[in-house]
Design goal:
The structure is a single chain. By secondary structure, the protein is of the alpha+beta class. Among the domains are: about 65-140, Ribosomal Protein L30, Chain: A (2-Layer Sandwich), CATH 3.30.1390; about 250-285 and about 295-470 and about 475-585, DD-peptidase/beta-lactamase superfamily (Beta-lactamase), CATH 3.40.710. The chain is about 35% helix and about 25% strand. It contains 22 helices and 20 strands. Strands 2, 3, 4, 5, 10 and 16 form a six-stranded mixed sheet that branches. The longest helix has 26 residues, at about 1-25. The chain is elongated, with a radius of gyration of 32 Å. The relative contact order is 0.10.
């Protein structure tokens, strides 16, 4: 027994040692993940970001090569500071500051020293890089824009900050990440996957070849290409029509919810946020607190919707039974809705739903709103019913589109007014301005465009979205799911007939386009701001919403032009031109086009600073 026990123990110990060595050397790779291991140097290969195309296959965003100089402070030895400064065109102070910053990040890990060298700078430095221990060159790709529009849609890429590095182990110092627009929303898809190479070093720090013959190395995988719903030609045309104007244009395909154009004005050329001057240019854009070029008015600007809101007032009135198609109100250039309270109107005589829409009669829709709220046992109940119908159109909340969140707008309910009138006493006449899109109601341009898509579809809409196709993948199914409003389909036809005659008999009859049946609604919204601490009324906003063709809608659109006087003056012509451009590909209304392309509102926007008077209700 003793003769067997000793050899058995020796054999067992040998097997344990062999198993442990096998595990450490073959199975356990955890230690090679530690980049601080002095025996292994980790190098990353950066993939190209995915390309971005428009709905017609036009390439919008590609890539261009860029070279970053990285530094690992602990590996710096006998660096000729003057030579490297001369070579890179930096001062000695810059050199010291950059190295100190790298030490703060990590003395033993590579971090960015000088980003985005051009080809000439790269060639000059690469030729002498062997003299500079601790310095390395990493090739990356920067965006190469094929168009000079849609900056708000694309977003941009920038170096990751410390917080991102701490919260996401994928990113290292100097890595690039998408910010704003589709670059941010689809970052995980566009960025691809970094390749990793592990280099074995000897005790003197010299590279001696791939670690374990490269069995742990991986290759970079290019990001997936994406196709946007955007029509690049329509987007470009929309931005040109907003010459010297401020506002937003949103165009949607009603049958799919695909965003055809998302214009904010003023905007900027996306290429200025690429390269060494990106930070400088971004700062200039950010500090422009007057024009706000970084502020996406299509998603973020909350405006009173004005007269286009009458569409909803009419639909809710029909749905609740407060009115029918033949309900008639008599307009005397306005109406009294309370003691000494008069709502002005440019219409007169007996008004029904049809001519109330195409003449944009305040009396008709103010009376409709009042009867809708008063139909219920209390104003609070009436407002809650009204509010819930409106929210079924996606109003008063985020629509869920695939761009960085915008604003919710505001659709008040009974609790809202109970808060503002804690002692009670409010009633339909107190809040009657809501009837015509003033009052407390606020909407964004994309909400208005989506509302028109729902009207065009006679009661349903798809969540607006900018993604059409992802290479090798499917888009989120929420973008192909119908959302139904609480308004019965039968109520949309009389409203659509009224919208059609806005172009034939009403406030947009001068904007007709031959061969296209357009349904639209003009709008004017009061505009207030604070000047020297005093609430001041500025020139009204110009608003227009539309869809076309009437019987087979292919485009729904909302246009806001800030300080644009009235709906048919600026917003209406732009909407008609955008519709004709999309449906026919060419413009016949050259009179409208010339005016929109060459005339703007620069003088209007200077009035808060020049002291010139504003134009009110003209």
């Amino acid at each position: 027994m003793r003769k067997i026990l000793l050899p058995a123990l020796i054999i067992a110990a040998a097997l344990l040692i062999a198993a442990r060595l096998f595990y450490l050397q073959i199975l356990d790779d955890s230690y090679i993940q530690k980049s601080e291991n002095n025996a292994i140097k980790v190098k990353y290969e950066y993939p190209e970001r995915g390309y971005i195309y428009d709905r017609n296959g036009e390439l919008l965003v590609a890539n261009q090569p860029s070279y970053d100089i990285m530094v690992t402070p602990n590996e710096m030895k006998n660096t000729d500071t003057l030579e490297i400064c001369s070579l890179l065109g930096i001062t000695k102070e810059d050199f010291i500051r950059k190295v100190e910053k790298a030490k703060v990040y990590s003395p033993r890990l590579p971090s960015i020293f000088l980003p985005q060298l051009n080809k000439k700078e790269f060639a000059a430095f690469q030729e002498k890089i062997r003299r500079f221990k601790g310095f390395d060159i990493v090739k990356r790709s920067l965006r190469d824009y094929q168009v000079d529009v849609a900056a708000n849609v694309f977003g941009y890429i920038q170096q990751v900050n410390y917080s991102t590095i701490q919260n996401n182990p994928y990113y290292k110092s100097g890595d690039l990440i998408g910010k704003q627009g589709v670059e941010e929303v689809y970052e995980d898809i566009l960025r691809g996957v970094k390749g990793v190479k592990r280099i074995q070093r000897d005790r003197f720090g010299r590279e001696i070849g791939p670690f374990k013959d490269g069995i742990y190395d991986t290759i970079a995988v290019k990001g997936k290409d994406i196709t946007l719903t955007l029509d690049a030609e329509l987007q470009k045309y929309g931005e040109s029509l907003m010459f010297e104007k401020r506002g937003g244009i949103v165009a949607i395909e009603p049958k799919t919810g695909e965003i055809l154009a998302l214009v904010t004005a003023p905007s900027y050329d996306p290429s200025i946020l690429v390269g060494r001057k990106r930070s400088e240019n971004y700062t200039k854009l950010y500090n422009d607190t007057i024009s706000l070029p970084l502020f996406d008015r299509g998603l973020l600007a909350e405006y009173p919707p004005g007269s286009p809101f009458k569409i909803l007032t009419g639909l809710v009135g029909l749905q609740t039974g407060a009115i029918d198609e033949n309900t008639t109100f008599v307009c005397h250039h306005g109406f009294f809705y309370g003691r000494g309270a008069f709502m002005k109107c440019h219409d007169s005589g007996p008004v029904k739903l049809h001519n109330g829409i195409y003449n944009s009669c305040n009396t008709y829709f103010g009376s409709t709103y009042k009867q809708t709220i008063d139909k219920f046992a209390s104003p609070k109940e009436g407002v809650d019913v009204w509010s819930n119908h409106l929210k079924s159109f996606g109003l008063g909340n985020f629509l869920g589109y695939d761009l960085p969140p915008g604003r919710k707008g505001l659709i008040p309910n009974g609790d809202y007014y109970d808060h503002w009138y804690p002692n009670g006493g409010w009633r339909s006449s107190t809040i009657i301005s809501n009837a015509i899109g003033q009052g407390e109601v606020k909407m964004t341009p994309i909400q208005l465009a989506n509302m028109m898509a729902a009207v065009a579809n006679e009661g349903y809409y798809y969540t607006p979205h900018i993604i059409k196709k992802i290479q090798g993948d499917k888009i989120d199914e929420k973008f192909t799911t119908k959302h139904y409003t609480t308004i019965d389909k039968e109520h949309f036809k009389p409203v659509i007939d009224g919208l059609f005659d806005v172009y034939n008999l009403g406030t947009a009859r001068g904007l007709r386009v031959e061969g296209i049946e357009i349904c639209g609604k003009t709008g004017t919204a009061e505009n207030f701001t604070k000047i020297n601490g005093k609430r001041t009324q500025l020139t009204d906003h110009s608003i227009f919403v539309a869809f076309a063709p009437k019987n087979d809608p292919k485009i729904a659109i909302a246009v806001f032009v800030e300080n644009g006087y009235w709906g048919a003056r600026w917003a209406g012509p732009i909407a008609s031109l955008m519709i004709e451009k999309y449906l026919k590909g060419e413009i016949t209304r050259k009179d409208l086009e010339t005016k929109m392309l060459t005339q703007g509102l620069k003088a209007e926007y200077e009035k808060p600073y020049s002291g010139k008077p504003f134009s009110i209700n003209k």
